Amino acid sequence: MNQVVKQKRSWSKRLEQKKKRMDNVKDLVNGMMIPTDRIVDVLEKLIRPHDRVVLEGNNQKQASFLSEALANVNEKELFDLHMIMSSISRPEHLDLFERGIAKKIDFSFAGPQSLRIAQMLEDGKLNIGELHTYVELYGRLFIDLIPAVALVAADKADRHGNLYTGPNTEETPTIIEATAFRDGIVIVQVNELTDELPRVDIPASWIDYIVVATTPYQLEPLFTRDPRHITDIQILQAMMVIRGIYEKHEVQSLNHGIGYNTAAIELLLPTYGESLGLKGKICKHWALNPHPTLIPAIESGWIDSIHCFGGEVGMEKYVAARRDVFFTGRDGSLRSNRALSQMAGQYAVDLFIGSTLQMDKDGNSSTVTRGRLAGYGGAPNMGHDPGGRRHSTPAWLNMMTSDDPLARGKKLVVQVVETFQSGHKPIFVESLDAIDVKKETGLAIAPVMIYGDDVTHVVTEEGIAYLYKADSMEKRREAIAAIAGVTPVGMMHDPKKTENLRREGLVALPEDLNIRRSEAKRSLLAAKNIEELVQWSDGLYEPPDKFKIW
């Protein structure tokens, strides 16, 4: 047999290319330190046209100094970049595309820029790779979206290049690891250099360059909800959730989405929940940011543990003082991790509860509507039943509706919505806007946030639909219509069928849960404003100025 002749080849091309790029800036940098006023020049020489660049820009923490610098490079030198961002949050994120510096984007969420990105897509000023969930996007960084360059943010660096990320570690380690261990270039903006760090969150050997930013990185108090704005309707819904879902199914581990409806649940645990004798029986373990509205429940002994996606402005001292509840380092500050907390929210919790902008008659929902390309962040990760789950809990087992010997439980996926949103727009619609968005944008699939077959419960001001009990699509549709109010979907319900659904346990109205609508008042809230949350915390919670009214 003829022997195969092996051709000589280099197995370190990526490393060789990296060294060439770094040689281009050796006269502009001091070791691994980039002078603050030379950052644009350095970016122009380290990054090349068509590169994949991952820019840290999640819900809260923004590598804002680096994103501004990138938006100021010479578009004749640096163009057609493929940007990867979990969240498109700042104006310059889209300025990159207006100027031609970037051409393609893969992302998860674009709440603050959702209107602009929809218009730019229509005008042909950017191309979308895909709309991802957070875990999906992080996973692809290690498979087929491996970055050439990572631009990230940290609190502090020491002279060796070790990083301290503090309470807002979030997605930083994931982004850096995907880049550093595939011979990409990692550039970190820091708020300050220091001789000694409170703890080392990311080692210097993962880092190529550090630049001290002119201002601290942007950090938004995204998860703070002022109890003053919680309405009686949201309190009624919260009472139904506690009584008709948490108590009924013995939910002990969970994730709450962002919103006033979930804030209401948190603030009712020490009052309404206490009156039902539920402490120690529900809501013990959480995958959740440190919501200030959790403070009364923590202080009154409801909560055993919380693992956080990220920090929350003003909660730093409180978290450090409650280390039995939170995951903290030796220095006392929170250790958050967005990727791991998303995984915990996907596989380790019994229940996800969130909201949406539109839901169709089958229970499919989306926050992508006509003219608004918001994306969906982590909701699809946590808002579905993961087929790989094998551990059982009472709540998970409680979803079993079959006596088949191979029957398995199911994660509880709850959607809480009012039948109409602001501007009298119905939440329940015959067809999701996401279908039209797919056609208009050329996306391969309609951007559905949570698919109806994953949803186990829908809660409105009218009642609860227990969709997991439905043995047919017809029954599911009837249950949704029964609680959809006077929306296009709700108008299709048959009152006689609704009575049957109540008897069968597929629908529960407040009265069926022994809840008086007249008792759903703000007086039930454990804290009725931010000032009372501060009092509950013994002064440890330090809210941002915009939330202070005293």
From TrEMBL:
GO terms for molecular function: transferase activity. It comes from the Bacteria. This is Malonate decarboxylase subunit alpha. It comes from Peribacillus simplex.
